[in-house]
Give the backbone structure.
Amino acid sequence: MQQKIIEGIINGDRRMVARAISLIEDEASEKETILSAIFPYTGKAYCLGITGAPGAGKSSLVDQLLVLLRRQGLRVGVIAVDPTSPFTGGAILGDRIRMQEHALDKAVFIRSMGTRGNLGGLSRATKDVIQILDAFGKDVVIIETVGVGQSEVDIIKYADTTVVVLTPASGDSVQTIKAGIMEIADVFVVNKADLPGADRTVSEISMMLDLGGKKRAWRPPIVRTITLDGSGVGELHRALLDHREYLTSSGRLEKAREDRVRRDIVDLIEYKVKSTIWRQVSGSAEFELLVSRIMSRETDPYAAAVQILRSINLNGLSP
Amino acid sequence: MREEKKIRVLVAKPGLDGHDRGAKVVARALRDAGMEVVYTGLHQTAEQVVEAAIQEDVDIIGLSILSGAHLTIFPRVCQLLRENNAEDIIVMGGGTIPDEDIEELISKGFARALFTPGATSAEIVGWIRKVTAEN
């Protein structure tokens, strides 16, 4: 089965791609073998991140960008993330509703995912699913984050270009100088630009960009769009192409991807060490004893952690 | 740290009627039962439904039909699933469907179960858990 899935991904079998994504999401034992086997076929896709508040128009923008990218003849994968319930683990994944025009286009592959407990605007599986879609032969992978607040900025770890979508009247000018989401944009979109307050939102972003003082090599353009009639989407597309050109010619794309590899390895090591330790510790008699000794103030969590770590065996790290 | 396999369900409203309250109630109930529900909205063609089901790798397709087009849509969805080697995806549905049509659709294998007005969320959730466990 594993081999069939790997060959399927490389040969463009969308059923096998879909199946592989589920295995990754479910943390199945086949996951690492599949990802290792397809790795040589990755590295070609350009990764575009779309983020913004709930209801800002992210899915509709993705839908309209798909039209333009398809017109260029590019094959596109979309990963659309929606929130998972922290109470039941269930999710309503509704981003496809806006993209159904492309459902029958064989060059477009859309996958909806729940966050499954991950904070930061993406699911834990997102970065691996990018790899799958890349090996599947997609030229562009668009990641649509969950509707975010101020600090869910994980998208910049994986996107080559990050688009932050705002709407008019989304707060006063102090909101624009706060840290977090406003710092991560390579391109700003003010969507629903037909609504009152659009000019003000644009000028507030613009002022925020100029407050920084030192001149930056790339000043994020601010694009107004109205997804209802598609206006501004062409301009957005040009801004994305400009940013890509800037990244490529300045060598920053290569640099960012190298940083990503570095971080990926560290993340993987962390994850493996953590799961190995947790498997040995969770529910063990020593662990439970320490919990009760901490409760009765005979020891403290810091000393307990050190004591547990001394007894951990990291040989034969688990997958 | 393997998670248990998550049940994924596509809820779609094929055809021309515009009442999706029932579909939304069911989608919500499945969400509350811990499932991932891909909701594709109104006015879907059978082709769109099947393609979405494949890309989303769902276990179940749930069709809500109130328009009377069930004798056309269910067989068409099943045919497309077969053409795409995806007949392992279970098709179920709900809506206003006369008893004799239910019998026909089920006996011919065009739907594994059909829930009509009065069916409870618990019945639907229980049924989905049972058939996905068997699959």
